[in-house]
Amino acid sequence: IMQSFTYLSPTEVVFGKDTQNQTAEYIRKYGGSRILLVYGGGSVVRSGLLKQVRQILEDDGLPCEEFGGAMPNPTLEHVREGIRLGLDFSADFILGIGGGSAIDTAKAIAIGCANAKTDVWNFWCRKEIPTHALPVGAILTIPAAGSETSNSSVLTNAATGSKRGLSSDLNRPRFAIMNPELTYTLPLYQVACGVTDIMMHTLDRYFNPIDNELTDAIAEALLRTVIAKGRIAIQNSQDYDAMSELMWAGSLSHNGLTGLGGPGDFAVHQLGHELSAMFGTAHGASLSTVWGFWALAVYPTKPARFARFARNVWGLQDKDENALALAGIRATVAYFSELGMPVCFGENTDIGIQSDDVLRDLAYRCSFQRSRTIGTFKVLDEEHIYEIYRQANQ
Ligand code: NZQ
Ligand code: ZN
């Protein structure tokens, strides 16, 4: 039966063409008067978006400071620099412009600036729980991580090689400006990584021990839509219809909706985070690299769930439940391959085939030095985790 839950998705979504023109209006609505603009490696400089937004804010009398350089898998060290800048500038509103990496950096700076006496990493390694943050807004340029409406922000501590997410409603942006045309400059590889991550946010919720008809049906519809529109976007990242559907799916996939009433699994995200932390691989690619091996390891726990997935998402039929479950797993992995995503270590150019020592180390790290298990569909300990990495090492 459905588990008890709370559902909070307070982000005001401003969706459609030219919506970035309303940025000043929304910042004022949510109390901002001195704005730190946080962006990534420069795509928004090259596209002219950063300049355009800055102009809009300044024309409205809103002073701005810029902080660029958030890299994919953004780092704690960079966030600390942003916090110092935000404090020096007396910023009272943080605007992330870009993808999950820029928006996650903006969220972390917002928490850091509001808790200037605490080292921000304490919140990410759960030594302390944050109780306040500066307000954050987002202008999204890639349909992917879902950070624009999610409660999460993921940072990598480069010094220790650990990648950690902080889930807190303080992380929910006040507003998200989502103009699908802002994604047109995306390289196709990033489109593919984004499609994979959107699917994974729903898959990591859908495969949980509880059946919930409405939630499961929403999840299946989302997956069918992303699979179909992903096929179009991977050929042409300037297809407005495909990019709109993907962008909206990206938000719905990670605002909680597709997993309500069940305990999310998220093992694949945990397996992937260790690969990104150790090898720097893009988030979407870290997930496609392990999903198939995770699925093969866990489906015997409840083949009916995987059979339902095969039927309702892939339109497959088979009287034999096990055979149908396996066919659904094969179809999913084949789809990742069709997108050009790596589906094992050997195909992932950041990783490659690894020694047994490295696999053991990955499993040890993923189990947080043997202090946790991951997953709910099937609970996985260090040994199970090692076995999945070992299978993926081909
Ligand atoms: O850095 P720039 O120069 O902007 O380039 C980015 C980056 O190289 C580029 N890009 C983005 N929009 C573009 C563009 N290039 C051209 N035109 C555009 N319109 O794409 C590359 C990837 O961007 P990134 O922000 O890293 O992508 P994504 O949105 O996938 O974010 C990944 C990060 O988010 C975390 C991941 O772990 C990873 O660190 N996640 C955050 C979540 C959350 N906050 O809720 C949930 C996810 O599960 C995920 O863990
Ligand atoms: Zn993700």
Q: What would the keywords be for this entry?
A:
binds zinc ion, 8 strands, alpha/beta, two-stranded antiparallel sheet, binds 5,6-dihydroxy-NADP, globular, 6-stranded parallel β-sheet, 394 residues
Q: What value does the Rg take, in angstroms?
A: 20 Å
Q: Per DSSP, what share of the residues sits in E-state strands of 2 or more residues?
A: 5-15%
Shape annotation: globular
User: Could you state the oligomeric state of the chains shown?
Assistant: single chain
Could you tell me which ligands this complex binds, including any ions or cofactors? Answer: 5,6-dihydroxy-NADP, zinc ion
Strand order of the largest sheet: 1-8-5-4-2-3
SSE layout and pairing:
Layout: E1 12-15, H1 23-29, E2 35-39, H2 43-46, H3 49-59, E3 64-67, H4 76-88, E4 93-98, H5 100-114, H6 121-124, E5 136-140, E6 152-157, E7 162-167, E8 175-178, H7 188-206, H8 213-233, H9 240-254, H10 267-279, H11 283-298, H12 303-314, H13 321-338, H14 356-366, H15 382-392
Structure write-up:
The chain contains 15 helices and 8 strands. With 394 residues, the protein is an alpha/beta fold. The radius of gyration is 20 Å and the shape is globular. The mean pLDDT is 98. The protein binds 5,6-dihydroxy-NADP and zinc ion (ZN). Zinc ion (ZN) binds at residues 145, 197, 200-201, 269, 283.
